[in-house]
Amino acid sequence: MRIAVFVDGANFFYLQKNCLRWWIDSKKLLDFITERYGDIVDATYYVGVDSTKNQDDYLKFLMNIGFSIERKDLKTIIQEDGTEKKKANLDIEIVLDMFNTIENYDMAILVSGDGDFERPLKLLKARGRKFLVMSSQGFVAKEIREVAGMHYQDFQNLRERLEKDQRWTLDREQGIPPTIIPAAPLPPPTPRWA
Predict the structure, then answer these.
(1) End-to-end CA distance of the chain
(2) Which is it for strands 2-8 and 84-87: parallel, antiparallel or unpaired?
(3) How far apart are alpha carbons 109 and 144 in whole angstroms?
(4) For residue range 37-72, what is the model confidence (pLDDT) as tens digits?
(5) Which parts of the chain are beta strand (E)?
(6) Which SS3 state, helix, strand or coil, does residue 69 take?
(7) pLDDT at residue 165, as a whole number
């Protein structure tokens, strides 16, 4: 079976940091997908890039293991209280790529729990395409879980198979795990409503 993998980079990062509280080895993830589901014909990692931060090493690592990278500059949003929030929403790019390449794959694997993907997943199903959603309980939107049904894989059940051999330190400024250190506990989870 021909597999296309679509990774919502921001959702994937915060899933690991705030929900799982352990780091997924992206190479092990691709290997797992190949062994379990079929040949990966395309794997794309969608990421918001902050021009003031250096994310090149992490993105090069992803490219070296087989991912294509779709980048979008982060935008600064001024909130009502005057604070700034940086965001780069790549949902549209993911959906466009899913449907523009639909003839190239038999099954789409979406690594995201974002509720915005409810309608695109329904459309994939209507077009006769198989799909799988990979996320985790407490981070996957109810709508996505309902659409996916049995086509859902919870990362909690794959910890033994996918966890990095060593934990990554968090560079909160950069927003990516840049360096490896010996295993150490992660900080307590941040409440999703904070």
Answers:
(1) 42
(2) unpaired
(3) 13
(4) 999 999 999 998 877 677 888 899 999 999 999 998
(5) 2-8, 39-49, 68-73, 75-78, 84-87, 107-111, 130-135, 152-154
(6) strand
(7) 81
DSSP reduced 3-state for 10? helix
- Looking at residue 166, its pLDDT comes to 61
Give the whole-angstrom CA distance, residue 64 versus residue 58. Answer: 10
Closest CA relative to residue 15, chosen from 101, 129, 149, 141:
141
Task: Tell me the chain's radius of gyration from C-alpha atoms.
Answer: 16
Three-state secondary-structure class, residue 193? coil
Summarize pLDDT for 18-32 with one digit per residue, the tens.
999 999 999 999 999
Measured CA to CA, the distance from residue 83 to residue 129 in angstroms comes to: 43
H-type alpha helices, 101-155: 118-126, 142-148
- The CATH number of domain 2-162 is 3.10.20.10: no
The amino acid at 173: E
- Cα separation, 130 vs 137, in Å, equals 22
Q: Name the token pair of 76.
A: 């600064």
- Distance CA(49)–CA(53), nearest Å, equals 8
Residues of the chain with pLDDT under 70: 52, 166-194
CA–CA gap between residue 69 and residue 44 (Å, rounded): 6
- Region of 125 please: left (phi>0), alpha (psi -120 to 50) or beta: alpha
